[in-house]
Design brief:
The chain is an alpha/beta fold. 51% of the residues lie in helices and 10% in strands. α6 (120-127) links the parallel β2 (110-115) and β3 (136-139).
Length: 262
């Protein structure tokens, strides 16, 4: 019996894409300040290489280190993070279609977060009227644990007071959400939503170029490589989350892991 449903936040409840576009723009500014002659297009090619060839979740860090070096990046990184945090409410908007899903699930299940997010996100979710639906607020900066550490998931299960198999993890990433949740015995729903469903309309040239890069290479769309990474099921739209939760209510041994069609 499923009792708890845990959500990732980035690219499930809040859209991280505009924020990452800003992140890359800030990295580009830092590189230019250092007098390095690299184009934004080249920076994005490095991003795509890091994702497609190395499956690097923190591709932005690797790109920054490549062009700035560790010492210089260590000076810029806190400033960029502060800039993002101060503007999080506008650069990480609510995902369209997620609110009815949360409200519907909250009628039948206990809800919680397992998310790598700064404390400011809690206030943002409160302003969206969503925080009241979640009993367990597992934000990395508050808990002191980060995904993909399985201990973060064990912490949530212990907090919930349920068995791992009585909880579902919903997340967009195989490496950060699905694999570690499976490793502790949770059920999993992969949510690799397509970009056009997110309804983000880039305005600046930087944003437009970033979205084009995102369509060529996206961490959320990296496919599982083996059984340990294969989700129990996949939802590629908001309404399908409800369908797949109901599907997992029944004996999960009846179902084969399902990736879904491209």
């Amino acid at each position: 019996m499923i009792k708890w449903i845990f959500f990732d936040v980035g690219n499930v409840i809040l859209n991280d894409d505009p924020a990452m576009a800003v992140y890359y723009q800030e990295i580009f500014k830092a590189i230019k300040e250092q007098g390095n002659h690299v184009t934004f297009d080249q920076l994005l090619k490095d991003r795509e290489h890091s994702i497609l060839n190395k499956r690097e979740g923190k591709h932005y860090i690797q790109v920054a280190l490549k062009h700035l070096g560790r010492d210089t990046w260590s000076k810029y990184e806190p400033k960029i993070k502060k800039h993002l945090s101060n503007n999080w409410a506008t650069i990480s908007p609510l995902m369209p279609g997620i609110v009815p899903v949360i409200k519907s699930l909250a009628k039948k299940y206990q809800l919680g977060f397992i998310a790598n997010q700064p404390r400011v996100v809690e206030e943002i979710l409160q302003n969206h009227g969503l925080l009241e639906y979640f009993k367990i607020k597992g934000f990395s900066q508050s808990v002191g644990l980060n995904k993909p550490d399985p201990e973060f998931f064990n912490w949530a299960i212990k907090k919930a007071g349920c068995k791992p198999e009585q909880a579902i993890m919903i997340g967009d990433r195989i490496d950060n959400d699905i694999k570690p949740a499976k490793s502790v015995g949770m059920r999993t729903i992969w949510f690799p939503i397509l970009h056009d469903i997110k309804d983000w309309e880039p305005v600046t040239e930087f944003e437009k170029k970033y979205l084009s890069s995102l369509e060529r290479a996206c961490v959320s769309h990296l496919m599982p490589r083996d059984k340990s990474e294969s989700p129990d099921t996949t939802a590629r739209d908001f309404g399908l989350i409800l369908v797949e939760v109901e599907r997992l209510k029944y004996d999960p041994e009846l179902w084969e892991p399902y990736i879904g069609e491209g």
